[in-house]
Amino acid sequence: xxxQPETALRPDPIDEAxxxxxxxxxxxxxxxLVMRFGADAPLRxxxxxxxxxxxxxxxTAGTLNAAGTNAVxxxxxxxxxxYFAHTHPLTGKPGWWETLVGxxxxxxxxxxxxxxxxxxxxxxxxxxxxxxxxxxxRPYGLNFPLVTIxxxxxxxxxxxxxxxxxxxxxxxxxSMGGMQVLxxxxxxxxxxxxAMPIATGPxxxxxxxxxxxxxxxxxxxxxxxxxxxxxxxxTRPSKGLGVARMGAHITYLSExxxxxxxxxxxxxxxxxxxxxxxxxxxESYLRHQGLSFVERFDAxxxxxxxxxxxxxxxxxDHDGVLAKAFQGIKTRFCVISFTSDWLFPTSESRVIxxxxxxxxxxxxxxxxxxxxxxxxxxxxxxxxxxxxxxxIDAAARARGL
Amino acid sequence: xxxxxxxxxxxxxxTTDALPRTAEGNGARVDHIVVLGLVPPGxxxxxxxxxxxSLLALLRDRRSIDGRGIELSRDGxxxxxxxxxxxxQGDADTDLExxxxxxxxxxxxxxxxxxxxxxxxxxxxLLRIGRQxxxxxxxxGHWRVRSELALRGRMPVTEIMPDAWWETPNxxxxxxxxxxxxxxxxxxxxxxxxxxxxxxxxxxxSMPWWVWNLFGAQGVxxxxxxxx
Lengths: 401, 228
Description:
InterPro entries (chain B): Methionine_synth_MetW (IPR010743), SAM-dependent_MTases_sf (IPR029063)
Shape of chain B: globular
Oligomer: heterodimer
CATH architecture of chain A: 3-Layer(aba) Sandwich
CATH topology of chain B: Rossmann fold
CATH superfamily of chain B: Vaccinia Virus protein VP39
Number of helices of chain B: 9
Distance between the termini of chain B: 37 Å
Strand order of the largest sheet of chain B: 3-2-1-4-5-7-6
Helix content of chain B: 25-40%
Organism (chain A): Methylobacterium pseudosasicola
CATH topology of chain A: Rossmann fold
Domain AB hydrolase-1 (chain A): 70-379
Order of helices and strands of chain B: HHEHEHEHEHEHHEHE
Helix content of chain A: 25-40%
CATH class of chain A: Alpha Beta
Largest interface: A-B, 28 and 21 residues
Number of domains of chain A: 1
Number of strands of chain B: 7
Active site (chain A): 175 (nucleophile), 341, 374
Strand order of the largest sheet of chain A: 1-4-8-5-11-12-13-14
CATH superfamily of chain A: Alpha/Beta hydrolase fold, catalytic domain
CATH class of chain B: Alpha Beta
Number of strands of chain A: 14
Structural class of chain B: alpha/beta
Radius of gyration of chain A: 21 Å
CATH architecture of chain B: 3-Layer(aba) Sandwich
Protein name (chain B): Methionine biosynthesis protein MetW
Shape of chain A: globular
Largest sheet of chain B: 7 strands, mixed
């Protein structure tokens, strides 16, 4: 969320990015740990496909204790990755959740064995549309099967099994990561001791599906997308993906935060240029967001992962009754929402809380007061940290850690 | 020692040694000690307006209850989280309708009903959600309240109602007799009732309602649905 005005001064950064053709090196050969699953261990997806072979890229921190009781799974969001506490190989930025995770932090890597894997369908080393289809020797593109949140969770469970983790002390994540947390609890109720779904919902709302569709159409309208075969054609739909990111990024913020950071202020002056240059700081900021995104993310992966979120409806999987997803569950939950989040508003978290109450599950709920919108879960939010610390420490005591 | 339970006052599951004495009373609020005496061991308990969770923690430690809470303030919820309690940030006026029938053995509403927008609906929800309801509230019929109003002509400010009229969250004050009237109106059965005097001491059970209504600073009721 940095404004980075020096970059934002460029007149049309997305045009500039369109010329670059960085290979999807991280998709094929990531700078992280990789677990490979052969033909004997296919991922059986909701779409009815047996995906094999496939690989899951992941990172860890901390050490699994002898009893195997201190494992934490971090579930990343839509465009996130496994580098939660590690320098990003493409951007060089620090881990995306170092505010919450690390030595002495609420998710204390001195006490817990923390795992985060790139979701299936993404582009940071786990198998996805930018990976090579063994049947053709060419990138999957749109031949990659549609994956769901549940498929992501199944793949994570297969990874954890290989790592010797029988069950989780804590499963935590925000946004799409929060969907995975809910799915974990519903799919493997006996294997999650504590769960923290943050800034998320039990289903993707019609409005959110609508925003995703705009992003997908922007990508598909870019001629360089080439019906999804851009890796073979040697092009990149950078304009489309950049516009998709610009639109999505607005939904991660809030009007008060935009007003506070940018207002109607002009970029590099005090008067309009009477052109379609990025006169306003907010325009420069969004263009910068679009530019930096296309350098690190694959357009097809963006299509697949937004689709996975759209399909998510936990109640639908349980006869339309969300409480049934959590029937008899022993997992202790801490649900967190943010007052200014209009993508996953507090009302969505309350639906989760009410369902957990109806299922008699132990649930705590905190609504954090902030003007930073949906992205608040990634930012320095002391109220979220204190709630997380209280919940996790108490859960650790109950677990005997 | 503030609590002196008389045997005739004891709930069915109580034994005299379970009655709260000094050891249990140390550091705990008087009305919490009274609630402690009314909650059976191992019960599923919902505490509405649970504040920092001190009652839930007391009940968990002394009665091994399975407790849940609802609290309006984030600071309160955070304090509960740190105690390992399952408490949601919410509002008695809006959140109770989402709880299923008979979800809890005991529902506790402590010093809160007078601050709700619709006490009757709240009380009906409590009786629906819990097999038993423990409810305490400041008695607006207390002689000091009456004298403030009758003699000084001012809205009363007392220890248990410390806020001035323009800043008090208490928008639906009632007397003990008023509350009994509401219980009759909605068909709630009063299984047990106690009035605490200004020092928090339970008043003698044998006293007639009008004495409670005049000298009780707060009422503590154990209710049950009438239809059962």
